[in-house]
Amino acid sequence: MSIQTPPSPERADFIREIVAADLRDGRVRTIVTRFPPEPNGYLHIGHAKSICLNFGIAREFGGRCNLRFDDTNPAREEREYIDAIQADMRWLGFDWGENLYFASDYFQQLYGWAVHLIRAGKAYVDDLSADEIREYRGTLTEAGRNSPWRDRPVEESLELFEQMRQGAFPNGARVLRARIDMASPNVLLRDPVLYRIVHAAHPRTGDAWCIYPTYDFAHGQSDAIEGVTHSICTLEFEIHRPLYDWLIENLPVPSRPHQYEFARLNLTYTVLSKRVLLRLVNEGHVRGWDDPRMPTISGLRRRGFPAEGIRDFAAMIGVAKSDSVVEYGQLEHAVRDVLNRTALRRFAVLRPLRVVVENYPEGLMEEMEVRNNPEDPSAGTRKVPFTRELWIERDDFMEDPPPKFFRLSPGREVRLRSAYFVTCREVARDAAGEVAELRCTYDPATRGGDSPDGRRPKATLHWLSAAHALPAEVRLYDHLFSRPDPGADADLFADLDPASETVLRDCMVESSLVQVPVGETVQFERLGYFCPDQDSTPGRPVFNRTLTLRDSWARIQAQGRRGG
Ligand code: ATP
Ligand code: MG
Question: What global pTM score does this model have?
Answer without folding.
Answer: 0.94
